[in-house]
Design a protein that fits this description.
The chain is mostly beta strands and 122 residues long. 0% of the residues lie in helices and 47% in strands. The protein contains no helices and 11 strands. Strands 2, 4, 5, 6, 9, 10 and 11 form a 7-stranded mixed β-sheet that branches. Strands 1-3-8-7 form a 4-stranded antiparallel β-sheet, with no helix packed on it. Strand 7 and strand 8 form a beta hairpin.
């Protein structure tokens, strides 16, 4: 399984970014983030089928996750960004078929992308 994350950048507070995770196939996928000095934390996840999805409380209502199966790409749409959203964002894929399972913990994923930096200025 290969993953390529992209779409990070510098944005002002209140702005939006869309991250993309392009994989070599179709897998249950998650997004995690890590800030300097902090542990990696769960952000969002989507099942193989596209439903259900799950979000961390800190991003619920601001972020959405979706997938375009024709492009083997999962998107993380981030709106109303806050300085505390600043982090390196990683996508992860679980290399098995599980129609409606979602995975919230990093240990459940066996494939990781290289990370994309998101910086939100105040």
């Amino acid at each position: 399984v290969q993953l390529q994350a992209s779409g990070g950048g510098l944005v002002q507070a209140g702005g939006s970014l869309r991250l993309s995770c392009t994989t070599s196939g179709r897998y249950p996928t998650g997004w995690f983030r890590r800030s300097p000095g902090e542990d990696r934390e769960f952000v969002a996840a989507i099942s193989w089928s596209g439903e259900p999805t799950a979000f961390a409380d800190s991003v619920k209502g601001r972020f959405t996750i979706s997938r375009d199966n024709a492009k083997n790409t999962v998107y993380l749409q981030m709106n109303s960004l806050k300085p505390e959203d600043t982090a390196t964002y990683y996508c992860a894929a679980k290399g098995l078929f599980a129609l409606t399972e979602i995975y919230r913990y990093s240990y459940q994923y066996d494939n990781w992308g290289q990370g994309t930096q998101v910086t939100v200025s105040s």
